[in-house]
From TrEMBL:
Keywords, ordered alphabetically: Membrane, Transmembrane, Transmembrane helix
Primary location class: membrane
UniProt-recorded name of the protein: Na+/proline symporter
InterPro entries from the UniProt entry: Na/Glc_symporter_sf, Na/solute_symporter
Location in the cell: Membrane
TM annotation in the entry: 12-30, 91-110, 130-153, 165-182, 188-210, 288-317, 337-359, 387-409, 449-468, 480-501, 542-564, 570-588
Membrane disposition: Multi-pass membrane protein
Length: 606
């Protein structure tokens, strides 16, 4: 479709131009602060409120790839599309916020990778910092940035007939210039503005979609009449037991694979900017606030972009066919539904979301690459200005790799599944490194590199055999949800065996880490040396924290399901779900206040 441009109205053009001018002006406004040093440029001076970091993290996670990837999935699933992101993020974010945010922020690190210097022997720490920095800067950030840019292309092509090159020429220079000048503080503040634009744009498209069908009742009736006999599951709010794309087992595997172990590493491949969000907040309490605000704002925004895509299946049923590029559905909706002016708002919203994610990824990837690779291994005794300059060079390098992803990937969901499967392999080890004194450096290495090896054996080798037409290769290819659980289980068994059958790390190292981090869990061998700490394992706070996280997660699920039911005109059931959600959020708030008070007292009395 490239080159067959849709005619822009004057109003649409001026809305987009005004947005670009505003973003450049905002970046120049923050230039002086950002140039004040590494902490200013990469952590916003550690003065960012928790709620603002939460909104900013949502902006980083919810870019056009949400509208394209999730929107495309919504076409072939239905009302239960919300479980794709609820199972992936919901419980994980609450577990990380309740169990770990307080402890990460209290360590006051510059990058979360410095944790390994505190927890393990120097050789293990060096290997882990180097490996995770390289993985983050050269794999995770280019991959997530690349699919964000690809998503923008998939929206702009059906909406305006723009080619990939034309879309990238519109977005990439402004995005790079913005983060180049503004640093992290400018990124966070712009994220708030960009999120506001995105929400307004998504609301506008949702409104016109409902109007197209004559309201929720008529829309639900039309979907029922169209798919009620062939695909009745399209109106379900819970994944069916049997579904070709997203059955209940996939949701459960997604939730287990992304939740168990989450939070113990603040630079996971599925959400690598978390460490930056935590360490830039003003206090440990506000680090927890960041996670809660992220969960609520992200899921509401994802609903706004996925629910209209479910309804779009009626307009373009061919998108449900195997092999169809259904990731273009949101751009097709924009072109079909929006009048002049509204189109400009939503295009600005998509550009805003793209720029926020690109800027976040470049800033974080450069921070890790400069601090944990360049300064740690190559040039270790230069001034702040030198490292700031190299950080900007690193951003250019990461952006170049991201553009390679754009031109070598077809489907966004494939990249997302690949990245999350790879990260899930070692997740349980991230809890062990905080909660179990016996988890040593060899176990850490086994978890990180053994997980990658099992991933290759279970996921990549069968695909390679099929590619080379090996007759029995197809029999080894499992559904991605079983692959995730198998790799995760094998990796966990490996590092447990290694931890139990190798020597523990030195006493002094473990004692110093325990005194500095004051972790929960099984540290009795070292905790009893401190007269203020009881000998028994400090596990009750872990159990209490998990219960609180589950309450917060269930409250969020009910909020999302209730809003989904309202979209499809199930008002009585939706109202009951929203009421139950409000009650659980109240319980969560009361419980988390007590829990934080306990952690603060424990820290003072340690």
């Amino acid at each position: 479709m490239g080159g067959q441009h849709m005619a822009w109205s004057q109003l649409d053009i001026w809305i987009v131009i005004a947005y670009f001018i505003f973003m450049i002006g905002l970046s120049l406004w923050h230039r002086k602060f950002a140039s004040g040093g590494m902490e200013n440029f990469f952590l916003g001076g550690r003065k960012v409120p928790g709620w603002l970091n939460g909104v900013s993290y949502t902006a980083a996670l919810v870019s056009p790839d949400a509208a394209t990837g999730y929107g495309g999935l919504a076409v072939v699933t239905g009302a239960f599309i919300s479980w794709w992101y609820l199972s992936r993020f919901g419980l994980a974010l609450f577990l990380a916020g309740v169990l770990f945010a307080f402890f990460w922020r209290k360590l006051n690190l510059f990058t979360s990778l410095e944790f390994y210097d505190l927890r393990f022997k120097p050789r293990t720490a060096q290997v882990m910092r180097f490996w995770i920095a390289i993985r983050t800067s050269f794999i995770a950030m280019p991959a997530w940035t690349g699919i964000t840019l690809l998503a923008a292309c998939k929206i702009m092509e059906p909406a305006f007939g723009f080619s990939k090159m034309e879309t990238l020429a519109l977005i990439v220079p402004v995005s790079f210039a913005f983060v180049f000048f503004s640093g992290y503080k400018g990124v966070v503040i712009s994220n708030l503005i960009q999120m506001s634009i995105f929400i307004v744009g998504a609301l506008v498209l949702a409104f016109f979609t409902l109007e197209h069908f004559g309201g929720p009742e008529h829309m639900a009736a039309t979907i029922q009449n169209t798919f009620g006999m062939t695909n009745p599951e399209i109106m379900q709010v819970i994944p069916p037991i049997d579904h070709e794309v997203f059955p209940m087992m996939a949701a459960m595997a997604w939730m287990v694979g992304q939740s168990i172990g989450y939070g113990g590493d603040a630079a996971p491949m599925g959400g690598a900017m978390e460490g930056q969000r935590i360490l830039s907040t003003r206090s440990p309490k506000e680090a927890l606030t960041m996670y809660v605000v992220t969960a609520v704002t992200m899921f509401i925004l994802l609903l706004l972009v996925t629910l209209p895509s479910v309804s779009a299946a009626v307009i373009w049923p061919e998108l449900r066919e195997p092999g169809a590029d259904r990731e273009q559905v949101y751009g097709m909706l924009m072109k079909e539904m929006l009048p002049a002016g509204a189109m400009g708002i939503l295009v600005a919203a998509m550009l805003a979301a793209t720029m926020s994610t690109v800027a976040d990824n470049l800033n974080f990837g450069a921070q890790v690459l400069v601090s944990d690779v360049y300064r740690k291994w190559l040039v270790g005794n230069r001034g702040e200005k030198h490292y700031l300059a190299m950080g900007k060079v690193a951003m250019g390098l990461i952006l170049s790799l991201s553009l390679m992803v754009v031109f070598n990937v077809d489907f966004i969901v494939d990249v997302a599944i690949f990245m999350l499967q790879l990260s899930a392999a070692e997740l349980p080890a991230n809890w062990a490194q905080w909660w179990w004194w016996r988890f040593n450096g060899k176990a850490r290495i086994a978890a990180s590199f053994g997980g990658a090896l099992f991933f290759c054996l279970v996921v990549l080798v069968p695909k390679m055999l099929v590619h080379f037409n090996v007759p029995w290769g197809a029999e080894l290819v499992l559904p991605w949800w079983w692959q995730t659980l198998l790799v995760m289980g094998a990796t966990t068994l490996l590092w447990i065996i290694v931890a139990c059958f190798t020597k523990p790390d030195p006493d002094g190292l473990l004692r110093n880490f325990h005194e500095k981090a004051k972790p929960l869990g099984y540290w009795g061998a070292y905790a009893h040396r401190n007269t203020h700490v009881r000998k028994s394992a400090d596990t009750r706070p872990i159990v209490n924290g998990i219960v609180l996280a589950i309450i917060g997660f269930v409250a969020t699920c009910l909020l999302v399901i209730g809003l989904t039911d309202f979209w499809f005109a199930n008002y009585s059931r939706g109202g009951s779900e929203l009421l139950a959600s409000a009650v659980l959020f109240w319980i969560f708030r009361k419980g988390i206040t007590k829990y934080l008070h306990f952690l603060e007292n424990r820290d003072r009395n340690f």
